[in-house]
Amino acid sequence: MKKHFYTFFALLFIAQLVWAEVDSSVSLQTYYATANSKSDNALRLALHDIIKGHTNVTYGGLATLMQWSDTKNADGKTVVDIYTNCTYTCNGALKWISSGNVGDGMNREHTVPQSWFNKQDPMVADAFHIYPTDAKANNNRSSFLYGEFSGKGTSYSTNKCSESGKKGTSEWKAGTTSYTYNGQTYVASTTYSSTVYEPDDEYKGDLARSYFYMATRYSDVCSGWSGGAFGSDNNGLKAYTAELMLKWHRLDPVSEKELIRNEVIYGNPIYNKSSKKQGNRNPFIDYPELVEYIWGNKKGQSVTISALDSPYANESSQGIDEIEVAPAARKVLMDGQLYIIVGEQMFNLQGQRIQ
Q1: Rounded CA gap, 16 and 312, in Å?
Q2: What is the total count of domains within the chain?
Q3: What is residue 317's predicted lDDT score, i.e. its pLDDT?
Q4: What is the pTM of this model?
Q5: 184 and 43 inside one domain
Q6: Distance CA 323, CA 19 (A)
Q7: DSSP secondary structure string, 17-41?
């Protein structure tokens, strides 16, 4: 087979795609076929029609589903908590507590708080935006918007473990807050100065893709939700939330954890050993670039589904045998994220130097 040669930074992106050993249990091009050639809000609505009508596992059923969707490599034993560095184990369905100190137990964290949609079905039990988290950290987050700020903020710890998230006053400012992604600098056009909850960097992308999913799966109702994150502008998201989530999505790419979680919720029996499944998928895990077509720098452009790359090993449009790997580069997996080392320098998959 003819080999293709790429620049170093293109290699970084492709390395992410071929690294994952998780396969999709469906043909994604077939699954998303009706979204082909759509753009902007029409694309969001087409994706809505694909993923709507999922099976409601019920609020109680989340404990069974999450034994597989939120344990390390779907082992059914070691719970991954996105708000703390606490370690929880399970033997069967997860157990919940309503309050306690950090490390005492878990609760079901709605990344989109229940109060925003009046605890209505099916949102109240939609696993794509619900995660098992430490009960204390869950209560600390409350119904605050997510955000960023400098300094320590308010965080909590015990002799068991500590909360990696923190609460404080947002420092997101129009014309000031900025970040660089793929060589382009993005500057905030909005300001938000109220109390926010900032999760650990490792899971910011996960949460962003949960919000993009919610704005799509519930595109017919999310404009009426309270809370200040969702609305009729920006394709279902308020301007501040859209900008923040775009940043988090871009800087924290899809991880193997998310790929497996997507498969469990969909109902792949390789990973899901329970009878609980929703039967739908998160489009922004399957094809992360779809975010750009709806909220980002490709807004208004028509998407070609067959041209999109997926982080699933069997769905990438470029095979590993087609890549001539830069001889000086090597891949390193750290804390569930892939990095590229060239010489003595480390880069993430966006080509940004880490050290």
Answers
A1: 10
A2: 2
A3: 60
A4: 0.85
A5: yes
A6: 12
A7: HHH--PPPSS-HHHHTGGGTT--HH
